[in-house]
Amino acid sequence: MITGASDGIGMEVAIMLAAKGNEITLVARSKEKLEKVASTLPGSGHRIIIADLSKRDEVDKLKEDMEANRYDALINNAGVGMYGRFTEMPLHEQVKMMNLNITALTALSYFYLSQAKRGDALVNVASNLGNTSYPGAAVYAATKAYVINFSESLWWENKKRGIYVVGVCPGATYTNFHNVAGGDKESFPKFVMQTSQQVAHELVRALEKRNKPKVVTGGMNRFMVSFQKLMSRKMVVNMMASFGPLKEEKK
Questions:
Q1: Whole-structure pTM over 0.85, yes or no?
Q2: Of the residues 71, 134, 140, 164, which is catalytic?
Q3: What is the average per-residue pLDDT within 79-88?
Q4: Which long-range contacts (CB under 8 A, 24 or more apart) does 236-243 make?
């Protein structure tokens, strides 16, 4: 089962896993987009579930499906971001983002792990911004920090059960995510950008190797995470703000 599977990283992961002989259940809000993706997947037995995971009853729909069907892996990829100054964005929209990025992901992880068996896997897609701070996307970065910390703890809790849990942290990616969030992917340095296919390849490889609780995708992103450990937090925040959505504001 892959959430957020109608485009971007989720769609590319679905294509790669289907090519390896897996039956995929695609989850997203758009029936039209899901049907289009499902029709292009190699193999057979693929399904779609239409659900808005920012809503509790829609999350429960997936719980019922998990109880009726056995999944070797759950990939929690659905997520949304918002760019702007914290007090200048609608609070209810930011809470809705938290419901999707944190509450729904936590509930689905609980439902899945409660019935998972040895050999199964849970992949939670976070973001490299969860490893740092990002003025202009304060709540979004905080939600992804939660996903990373949560996933690492679940990795330890489930490793003796033979169930693999990993938090995957993509950096800036060439998808429509940034436009939907109200930002611009051109704000990010080109040397950290990846395609959806590149991120999906690293996610699938992590799923196959099963040796780390956290995977940061992209060599330059891994370097940046290591480099920031040598800096003071003040320096890190100022650096991240220098190419963030508020970069044009006077210092």
A1: yes
A2: 140
A3: 96
A4: 236/132, 236/133, 237/133, 237/135, 240/132, 240/133, 240/134, 240/135, 241/134, 241/135, 241/136, 243/187, 243/188, 243/189
